[in-house]
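Exercise 7. Predict the joint structure of the components listed below.
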Amino acid sequence: MKGIVGKGLVLLLIVIAQVSILPRMSLGNLQPDLFLIAACCWGLIKGSRIGMGAGFAAGLLQDLYGTGSNIFIKPAIGYISGRFEGKIFKESIVFPPMIIFGASIFSGIITYLVHEEFLFNLSFGYALGEIVIPGAVVNAALTIVAYPFLLWLERKLEERPRGVYH
Amino acid sequence: MRRYKLQYWHLGIIAIALVLLVSWGANYLEIPMPRPFNFLHTVTAPFHRSVNWVGDRIGNVRAFFTQYRDFHEDRAYFEGRIAELERELSHAQEALQENQRLRELLKFEQRENFETLGASVIGFGSDNWSQTLIIDRGRRDGLSPRQPVITGNGFLVGQVQEVFSSTARVSMITSPGFAVGGIVKREESRALGMVRGTPLEEGLFVMDNFSWDADVRIEDEIITSGMSQYFPKGLAIGTIHTLKEGDYGLTQKAGIKPFIYGETIEEVLIILGEWGETE
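Solution:
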């Protein structure tokens, strides 16, 4: 229960940061996809099931303000990154950014392909070179900070109160 | 024989397939879909308003310390500028009266003033794809989809895309898929074309469908043509920065620099109701 409430609060903070704060701070039109980073990190930390659930919630919230395909892309990303849980060292700061870079490319290409306004108005080269790859680099860079924070938060939430034994 | 065991990812794929099937089906058959999670927009709106309020205050305090010296220089400049503009206003009022007299003589219909509603920008699109704004006006303020949105000085920002209870999402003119009829403002030209949100080089977007012999020049100002029922005539869009041949020389294609820049927009006006034709 604590885990769900904790994730809910983190997602609420992400909504506020993504919609109201980051666009005013971003470089040009580029901003990191905090929803993708969160879904991916939770998948890596907690596994496929939690990753998919968190991805669904993140996608649902993001679609209220965005393109409308995240509700099925983010659960897939959460699930796929969850498959790496237990296969990589959890304290690693090398693999999570690499996985999130790949997930961002995957997410960007699927977004481009399923939206006709992008498919017919942007060339694939432009979308890849100006939006997808720069966005993936920004996401991977931010993961270096976000992943250890989410890992620390999950461990804090999992800690049992002192003096309580089952 | 191996027994089938249902796994979480199977359920996920089935759910995604169902969502896709239902949404594409509803879109194809033009059936309006209920949006059960739209209330989240209303729930999160106060947080966005608060963050903007705090951001504005921090910006003001920072500006006071960092731009104190500039304020004095600006004040002297603006005092001179106000005097200059007052003189121009006096001439403009004379011209307006003359224009009204001539319109009456020629039996032209009066240009209608737009009925507008002010709104604050409380957020932006949540990804790098869509160029959208979130404003703090919604259904209960009388907003409906497709209403034009402008800045205080009349620059076209975009169009209301989706309306929620107390907020709305505005698709900006620089959004891929956005299209509006444009016309060259210069009296000798008045060439017509189609302004699209399709990006060209850095910061420019496309205006195409100019005829091959249209009198179009670099630095020409583009305004809305008024040919679409969704945008009134005369809203400023941008200026032409590049010009080249399109469709193998059959048309001309321009690169437009918009007057607006997304992240700097803080307040907008939504044009409500109907607008009349001038002639």
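Discussion. The mean pLDDT of chain A is 86.
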